[in-house]
Each structure stands twice: as structure tokens, then as C-alpha cells.
Amino acid sequence: MLAQTKTLSENFDNNDLILVDRLASGNGWSMISGPLNFLYGKQAAYFFNPTDLDKIDATKFDNIYFIIPDQSLALYEKFGLPEKLIPQKDYSLQRSYLDTTDIDTTSGIFSNLPLKSESVTQGKIYLLKK
Question: Which of 12, 36, 80, 94 is the most exposed place for a label (fewest CB within 10 A)?
């Protein structure tokens, strides 16, 4: 996913704020905001509460972008945010992970070895209207 995150970072300038939905990668534990910030010099933050948008000083940034997977858009609709967003570009992230669905939740023991699985998360990059 690191190479994909680098490609995604090329959509933003250094004085933009990038608010990354918690499921932008398809998994809340595979957060791309850290690499966007530390490796690629972007001002990116993990974003999960739409009401926090009012607490951000937008004057400090040239643009504010959201990276939102299609599966999370309903959350933002509840808060009326889509009317404030301009779709910019589709994105897609593929990730590999170990599927642990065969774990016995009582004993914590796998009934089978974990299997390597793949998933693709699709969404959009949105620009916040000024």
C-alpha cells in the first residue's frame, strides 16, 4: 500500500490539509494519514467525526481535501457535508491482509492457518468548498 499512498499523495500540495476517513484504506488499522504526513510531507490527519470540521481553522490551508471511501459516504450525508464537497478524483487502494475468520474467539486458537486475502477499497477525493 505504500506505493499506492505515494501516488495518492501526488494529488495534493504541501499547504493543503487532507482529512482521511478512518476506512479510506478499507481497514481502520491500515491508516494512510501517517505515511502521507511523515513520508510524503503532506498535512494529513485521520478524520472520523464530521462535527470536528467546524474546529479547523481553514485559513491556514490553501485547500482542504477529504479522502472518503464509498462505504463511508452515508456518515457524511447525515451531517450534510456532501453539499460542501466537490468531487475531484476517484481513488482505489488494494491491500493484502491475513484473514483470521477461522479463530476460535473463546480459546483464541486458529482452527486453520490464516489465509492471505486481498481487498480493494474505492472512493473519492473531495475538495471542501470555500
Answer: 80
